[in-house]
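Is manganese (II) ion placement plausible here? Inputs below.
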Amino acid sequence: MAIIDQPLREPAASVSVPSPDGADPRIVAWVERLALHATPDEVVWCDGSQPERARLIRDMVDAGTLVALDDAKRPGSYLARSNPEDVARVESRTFICSEKEEDAGPTNNWVPPSAMRETLHGMFRGAMTGRTMYVMPFAMGPIGGPLTRYGVQVTDSPYVVVSMGTMTRMGHAALAEIGPDTEWVRCAHTVGAPLAPGQADVPWPCNPIKYISHFPETREVWSHGSAYGGNAILAKKAFALRIASAIGQDEGWLAAHMLLLKVTNPRGRVFHVAAAFPSACGKTNFAMLQPTIPGWKVETLGDDIAWIAPGPDGRLRAINPEAGFFGVAPGTGWSTNPVAMDTLTHDVVFTNVALTDDGDVWWEGMTDEAPAHLTDWLGQDWTPDADRPAAHPNSRFTVSAAQCPTISDDWDDPAGVPLDAIIFGGRRATNVPLVSQAASWEHGVFMGATLASERTAAAEGTVGELRRDPFAMLPFCGVNMADHWQHWLEVGEKAEAAGGAPAIFQVNWFRKDADGKFLWPGFGENIHALAWMLDRIEGRTGAVTSPFGLVPEDGAIDHAAAGVSDEQWSALFGLDKAALSAEADDAAAFLDSYGAKVPVEVREQLAVMRGAIDSLD
Ligand code: OXD
Ligand code: MN
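Reply from A.M.:
I modeled the complex. Tokens:
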């Protein structure tokens, strides 16, 4: 589908913005119109080079936006402290502005595109006064690859430029790929904090009025008011998930909120695995898993997003469209994720973590004991007896994927990797077993569609509350979620016809006993579940049926080797008939909220699950 060029209502009467040689005239025209409207003092086209990054960082240190960390302890690394009101994605201010409301669906905030354009027109007018507008051409995926897509983001935040430089392939090389026939996604971002002449700037400019607006049909994102993460790094959640889910629906591929792994078993067979977990469910830890079973090797391809598409033979292949990790810092430590800790030893931008007295960073979970004194994420003195965390629970690191010691050598392969398995996981204290295998692709789509998790700090809402988060995409789906399920069914059907779709599994690392203690150790021991899944693909291990599909037969997993007692092991698969019936009712009510659009196959799978629950003793 061609991108419809949507001019702002005031035509660019006269503005002269220098542009790089060879820049596609459509990009130049779009940038000129925006510049005329948002009235920055200057327009700078980013080349994505190291000197450019160094210059921007120097300016941000001078402006107080970044604190340089100790160069011996954390070379090339910086700390940003955001405005305390701008610390997470704002789902309540995230809009899908499709032409038809039913194309956004009941779980997105919908505003008619014409009304949102009107609003944004007002919000962007003069919004960049006193600031520089940066223009960032970028690629999602390896430059030139068949699955790669392109975008251009403008922003008035140098922090966002540096972040985009890490998270995407940004700069000249991407610009050179955008020719007259290339689709590219327009991403317009402003912090919404114009400066009057002589007005002093603040370290983290932002605006209480936030809009993260998506126009799926015209492939545009417009974001106002925030400089934090997914609100501002528009290549990530906004493009690579919300807009990409609309592009994928039109083009026959899947945008998935999934990490990507390469796993080699002791016999040398290589598997590629994509796994969807709602925000802050230990995705980065799983992406950097250090197996505790000898002979298994896990390498990292991506930690957050996968694009899955049929390859030349019709089988599904996947790429990680990003180039960096924007990971949650708290809970990342030497004992829980040494690979991440090794990744973070240099050239990192941290946001909202605590600062140590010797110029390094700290967050809850980095070490068992907190330092005796810190400067917390708000810039205030902090000691371990304080009744507040030193790092914000959604504090982050932004780091190049190439720095990860377990990065797989094919993570940058333009052709992507063949996909063998897909995993859905949530944070569930009860009901959901440690691991199960879907009986079919349709059953797997049902597992994804009814995925639920207890809320974490990555977004607004009450921490701990259970929410359905289908495909871990609830906040990230740019189309009607039920259409997305239908699309998954169709893509799987085609892959099956071409010789086989990936096997689908569900996991839950977070089940608790009656005293609220986790039953499963997680982290490196998760290899036990992963090994069972991949052995299933090879037909090497047994399974028995359950309401959740197929679960390991007795003895298929050496749980004692994971430090799990027999009692804990059976509790990890415990089936409470009444609780499961309530679970099925809840899933049914959730499906009903999508009305007639719910695919019949998904409803059928719920009926199968109910039948299995009813036949429990
Ligand atoms: C993220 C998220 O930041 O899922 O990756 O919220
Ligand atoms: Mn994510």
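Short version: The chain has 16 helices and 32 strands.
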